[in-house]
Write a structure and sequence with these properties.
The complex is a heterodimer of chains A (231) and B (574). Chain A is α/β, with parallel strands linked by helices. Helices cover 26% and strands 29% of the residues of chain A. Chain A has six helices and eleven strands. The termini of chain A are far apart. Chain B has 574 residues and is of the alpha+beta class. In chain B, helix 13 (336-350) runs antiparallel to helix 15 (397-413). Classes of the chains: A alpha/beta (231), B alpha+beta (574). Chain A binds chain B through residues 12-16, 25-27, 29-30, 32, 67, 178, 181-185, 187-188, and chain B through 229, 324-326, 329, 331, 376, 378-379, 381, 397, 405, 408-409, 412, 417, 419-422, 424-428, 430. Chain A: This is Electron transfer flavoprotein subunit beta. Chain A: Pfam families: ETF (PF01012). Chain A: Keywords: Electron transport, Mitochondrion, Transport. Chain A: Heterodimer of an alpha and a beta subunit.
Chain lengths: 231, 574
């Protein structure tokens, strides 16, 4: 069974952002939730199937994909698009990719740390009409002949909810696993792995931006406390 | 039996010389037995004996002193009763000789306290037991002084007034900052007055074009780093103690740290200092010029003199710009020879972007993973003997990554490296650094530690470690790590408890070995109290004589941080 993992290249989570969100000389890396998704895919693979890593974005995403390959993904697909993409557009692209590649399982991070949308996984599931298991903190996959089922523990407000789903779209939450390091010998090997490049025309997807960013402002600075003489 | 006769001698002596409390104390202190005959347990019981003895003395003196020779004496008697002993308490078993309390130093009295209250106002004078307890104990919990007074000046003027007064009264003082010294340099040995500059923590100016920062000596290093981060600059030094250590202390000890390889020592980055001398004279050498060849460059005397020539109150330092592309690689090697070869390769292949080169051996790694939570082995697949941390800092991500990858690829192919990881994000990078920076903390949690900081020719560094392992066998865990790029070994010997037998196997062997290689017995930690009588291992007699002469000129009464840095034998000669 093929597993497809979506990864996004974002500003490194430990960078202190100053006013506006400058992406020019700031350290970028793989979205932490995507790392967790990739780690889970690799663990499932290590109990026996292929996994692939796909990312959508401008040219520099190649680094992020290389990291994914170094960690153990078999193939990478890079869909090039120079502008900003919103979740619905990303979801449409993934629908096209899933139709082409036909994976059995799709793993994503629950949200990206730059926009915190938490929508892409759910929208893909909607477009594909697949079941979805979101905020997964535990996944176990059974792939017998007649019985392809994933049991997913979800983090919900009231606690944990366990669902049994027919091979779904899963978005991953923090407690699922701790991502591995990409060791040097693997990084060297990853250089020779191929990253397939695709454009939107190849996938027959049309992007129409239905969101417009009006304003980005910093939250107001915290005021100093006032010491009262009495209450 | 020796103790009993000394104590009874003391009792008889005291009843005769009531008015001369000063001499009583000296006599009392001088009956401390010499180091060689005592081992740890008996020393502790001896101290307890003396404390009991002293309690007994209180009553004797009180009874005899009724209607005595004036309020003054009764008053100081009362103080003596509450103070107990003015000996130096030691938690460390090693009874390696600490010099006796210098007889010429006065002891504080109420007039002194009222003067300080006048100069500093109430909040600057600390006599609270708990706070003093902290200030009297060093970070390693090896040494403990018995100071009864800590002063916290806020301005250079206050420091000057305090020192002028102490000099005229011949009151010994200890300059203190973050109290993170690893050689007992920042705590009193006896009852020296602690002058803590922590309240002088203002940043005075920062020039965004030249990167020159002017600030007060009490600024904590990490705070300076955060401030500069906002401006797009970094401090030229970085060390594990950054959350507590202060820049004045860093300069007074010529701190080294993780980035010395790239940005050089403080002798190069410090452009100017404001220093207060022992007699209260304020030396304003707070230049902000990159080049100034006018006369003798005196600030270099104070950089590294550990507070024994003057108290640093203001600092002007050149800070490098913050470069965006930082990469960190955590690598594993089979043997020490490969570590050295990698260093050479790194210098040539990485060139100007190399910013740190650290190593730790397997004992250090195991200890850190065992004692600190939240850390995991970046290379869990197999056990490696040596780990090397290489950091590069540059202005262009793509350029640096290419260089680093080429270097690493070649190192793996030629077999110099057995495995390695490159940090993929800042989080991973800080966890790798935590492993290296956490070794001292892990050692402290493990039990007792004998800590040595040596500069040696790089090819000889690990020979010493292996010799120590042979000498100590299973009695101790010999842990080695350090700034391999600077030829600096941190040799740490970890044992469950302090034990004089083990100490005897370590010292003076370690110092003699280092001396033979013309190495330094203290690469960056300084001399402090721990190595005060060991200067000759790394300096010629003539050199030490000149040091003593300079000390005599700048601090004739010897009140600044006594018993430290220079051996007492040399000081008493001049």
């Amino acid at each position: 069974m093929k597993i497809m993992v979506a990864v996004k290249r974002v500003v490194d989570y430990a960078v202190k952002i100053r006013s506006g969100v400058e992406t020019s000389n700031v350290k970028m890396s793989m979205n932490p939730f995507c790392e967790i998704a990739l780690e889970e895919a690799l663990r499932i693979k290590e109990s026996g199937r292929a996994s692939e890593v796909v990312s959508v974005g401008p040219a520099q995403c190649a680094d992020t994909l290389r990291t994914g390959l170094a960690k153990g993904a078999d193939r990478a697909i890079h869909v090039e698009f120079p502008g900003t993409l919103y979740p619905l557009s990303v979801a449409k692209i993934f629908k096209a990719l899933v139709d082409a590649e036909k994976p059995g399982l799709l793993l994503l991070g629950k949200q990206a740390i730059d926009d915190d949308c938490n929508r892409t996984g759910q929208m893909i599931a909607g477009l594909l009409k697949w079941p979805q298991g979101t905020f997964a903190s535990k996944i176990s996959v059974v792939l017998d002949e007649g019985n392809k089922v994933a049991t997913v523990d979800r983090e919900v407000d009231g606690g944990l909810e366990t669902l049994s789903l027919d091979l779904p779209v899963i978005t991953t939450d923090l407690r699922l696993n701790q991502p591995r390091y990409a060791t040097l010998p693997n990084i060297m090997k990853a250089k020779s792995k191929v990253i397939k490049k695709l454009t939107l025309q190849d996938l027959n997807v049309e992007i129409r931006s239905d969101l417009e960013v009006v304003q980005v402002i910093e939250p107001p600075k915290r005021q100093a406390g006032v010491v009262l003489s009495s209450v | 039996m020796k103790y009993l006769t000394a104590a009874s001698r003391l009792l008889r002596h005291s009843s005769r010389n009531l008015s001369d409390l000063g001499s009583n104390l000296q006599f009392f202190c001088s009956i401390r037995p010499s180091s060689s005959c005592l081992s740890y347990p008996s020393l502790r019981s001896y101290e307890r004996f003396i404390q009991d003895d002293c309690f007994h003395r209180k009553f004797t003196l009180k009874n005899i002193c009724f209607g005595g020779s004036g309020v003054g004496i009764l008053h100081s008697l009362a103080r003596f009763q509450s103070d107990g002993i003015r000996t130096h308490h030691r938690n460390l078993a090693s009874t390696a000789s600490i010099p006796e309390r210098n007889k010429s130093f006065a002891t504080i009295n109420s007039d002194d306290i009222s003067y300080f209250n006048k100069v500093l106002g109430g909040r600057g004078v600390v006599q609270d037991e708990e706070k003093l307890d902290d200030a009297n104990t060093d970070w390693m919990r090896k040494y403990k002084g018995s100071s009864k007074l800590m002063l916290q000046p806020r301005t250079t003027q206050e420091v000057s007034q305090i020192l002028d007064y102490c000099n005229s009264r011949c009151l010994a003082v200890v300059p203190q900052g973050g109290n993170t010294s690893l050689v007992g340099g920042s705590i009193p040995v006896y009852d020296e007055v602690i002058i803590n500059v922590g309240s002088m923590n203002n940043i005075l100016s920062f020039d965004k074009v030249s990167g020159i920062l002017v600030c007060e000596a009490g600024c904590i290093l990490e705070n300076l780093m955060s401030f500069l981060d906002n401006e797009g600059y970094i401090m030229p030094l970085d060390l594990g103690a950054k959350g507590s250590c202060q820049i004045g202390g860093n300069i007074s000890t010529n701190a080294g740290g993780l980035r010395l390889l790239r940005y050089g020592s403080l002798h190069g980055s410090v452009l100017g200092l404001e220093v207060v001398l022992a007699n209260g004279t304020v030396l304003d050498m707070l230049g902000t010029l990159r080049k100034d060849n006018t006369g003798y460059d005196l600030k270099h005397l104070f950089i590294g003199s550990e507070g024994s020539l003057g108290i640093v109150t203001k600092v002007s330092i050149l800070t490098p710009p913050k470069l965006p592309s930082v990469n960190l690689a955590f690598l594993a090697c089979e043997d020490y020879l490969s570590c050295q070869k990698i260093l050479v390769e790194a210098k040539t292949k990485l060139g100007e972007i190399l910013s740190a080169f650290e190593f730790l051996d397997i004992n250090a790694m195991d200890l850190v993973l065992k004692q600190l939570d939240g850390l995991r082995d970046p290379l869990p697949s197999s056990k490696h003997n040596f780990y090397v941390l290489i950091e590069t800092t540059g202005s262009m991500e793509s350029h640096d990554k290419e260089k680093l990858e080429a270097f690493l690829a070649q190192a793996i192919e030629s077999g110099l490296l057995t495995d390695g990881v490159v940090a993929q994000d800042i989080n991973q990078a800080s966890s790798f650094w935590r492993i290296r920076e956490g070794v001292p903390e892990a050692l402290l949690k493990e039990g007792a530690v004998y800590k040595y900081d040596l500069s040696l020719p790089p090819e000889k560094i690990y020979d010493l470690v292996e010799e120590m392992r042979q000498r100590l066998g299973t009695a101790a865990n010999v842990v080695a790590y350090g700034h391999l790029g600077d030829g600096n070994l941190h040799l740490n010997i970890s044992t469950p408890q302090y034990d004089d037998n083990i100490l005897a196997k370590i010292e003076p062997f370690v110092y003699e070995w280092t001396s033979k290689q013309r190495g330094s017995i203290s690469a960056e930690h300084g001399i402090g109290l721990m190595k005060a009588n060991k200067l000759h291992y790394s300096n010629s007699a003539e050199t030490v004589q000149v040091m003593a002469a300079i000390k005599k000129v700048l601090d004739p009464s010897g009140i600044l941080n006594p018993y430290k840095v220079l051996p007492t034998s040399v000081l008493s000669q001049s």
